[in-house]
Amino acid sequence: MKLEHLEQQAEAILSEVADMAELKPGQILVIGCSTSEVLGKHIGKAGSKEVAAALYQAMERVRQSRGFSLAFQCCEHLNRALVVERETMERFNLEEVSVIPVPTAGGSMAAHAFTQMGSPVVVESIKAHAGIDIGNTLIGMHLRAVAVPIRPSQRQIGEAHVTAARTRPKLIGGARAVYERSEPNSSCT
User: Partner of 41 at 20 to 30 A CA spacing, among 34, 69, 75, 133?
Assistant: First the structure.
């Protein structure tokens, strides 16, 4: 499997999902990634630092051009904690935990992200604005309450199945609720 091809696939999917989710600067996109699944192997059995590096490069290029933040989900051995930049942790008032992800406890993708970020920290949970799941890593626990599936035109990176979602605010109220503004300063009486 050519790393350049994987990198191109990741960049195309990430760009499309960012567009479809209408991600804005400062918002968070969570990434769950099994490099084993990308290689066509069973999740957690054949992690690859090389695949992680290629995918990270693509993801970082898209992140830099768009201004959103990335959160990389660790594997279940670290209770699916996430690697983020310290600035993201502080901006969203997240709680840091003490651990350094490695390929055998955290996964190759999260471990690589930890070595590449400027000031990486690990946090226990997050409520992201959108997410991409590469290889069925189950990122749903890290999305805001109302997740809406996104169907990118490309649904695989290597051999791994890709799913994605954006989130939206909850619709609250009942029959009298209004969800779009019609008059600038209307008020309830």
Answer: 69
Whole-prediction pTM value? 0.91
Residue 68 CA, chain-centre distance (Å), reads: 11
Angle at 172 between CA 166 and CA 173, to 5 degrees: 155
Using the predicted structure, report yes or no on whether residue 184 has a pLDDT greater than 80.
Answer: no
Tokens of 159: 């051999």
| Exposure b/e, 24-44, CB count within 10 A at least 16 = b | eeebbbbbbbbbbbbbebebb
Q: What is the mean pLDDT of the chain?
A: 94
How many whole angstroms separate alpha carbon 136 and alpha carbon 76? Answer: 12
Supply angle C-alpha 167, 38, 2, rounded to 5.
120
Class of domain 3-168: alpha beta
Residues contacting 19, CB < 8 A, separation 6+: none
Q: Which amino acid is at 7?
A: E
Instruction: Average the pLDDT over 41-50 and give the result.
Output: 94
Q: What dihedral do alpha carbons 99, 103, 106, 110 form, nearest 10°?
A: 90
Residue type, 40: G
Q: Which two tokens stand for residue 123?
A: 């946090």
Q: Which residues contact 101 (CB under 8 A, 6 or more apart)?
A: 74, 78, 81, 83, 107, 110, 111, 114, 122
